[in-house]
Design a protein that fits this description.
It catalyses: xanthosine + phosphate = alpha-D-ribose 1-phosphate + xanthine; adenosine + phosphate = alpha-D-ribose 1-phosphate + adenine; inosine + phosphate = alpha-D-ribose 1-phosphate + hypoxanthine; guanosine + phosphate = alpha-D-ribose 1-phosphate + guanine. This protein is mostly beta strands. About 0% of the residues lie in helices and about 65% in strands. It has a single domain, classed as Jelly Rolls, CATH 2.60.120.10.
Length: about 100
């Protein structure tokens, strides 16, 4: 999705790793939320309590889910993180991303 309509955007940034990863929260009319952000080159580890869809819009990174091998995304791609797991990232160039959160079904 290239753009969102009828949303609320939080003006307060989510800032991680001393400002090397930032995002803004977007809330839709039905209450679902996404974050839009930027990651600078570096290595990061995140945890999540909800299932996530990481939609990479631009940039180059490697990601590793628990129990899996490293995989690479160049320019664009999507990966999913199960709820209650952590994942590792090696960001090689500035990454533009959209993260969607899913409640347990």
């Amino acid at each position: 999705m290239a753009e969102f309509t009828n949303v609320t955007i939080s003006t307060k940034a989510n800032i991680y790793f001393e400002g090397k990863v930032t995002s803004r929260t977007v809330v839709f009319q039905d209450g679902t939320r996404k974050t839009l952000g930027i990651m600078l080159p570096g290595e990061y580890e995140f945890s999540t309590s909800q299932k996530e869809e990481m939609d990479i819009q631009a940039g180059v990174l490697e990601y590793k889910l628990q129990g899996q091998e490293w995989k690479t995304i160049e320019n664009s791609g999507v990966f999913y993180v199960p709820a209650n797991e952590s994942f590792s990232l090696k960001v090689h160039s500035v990454v533009d991303y959209c993260c969607s959160y899913f409640s347990e079904e």
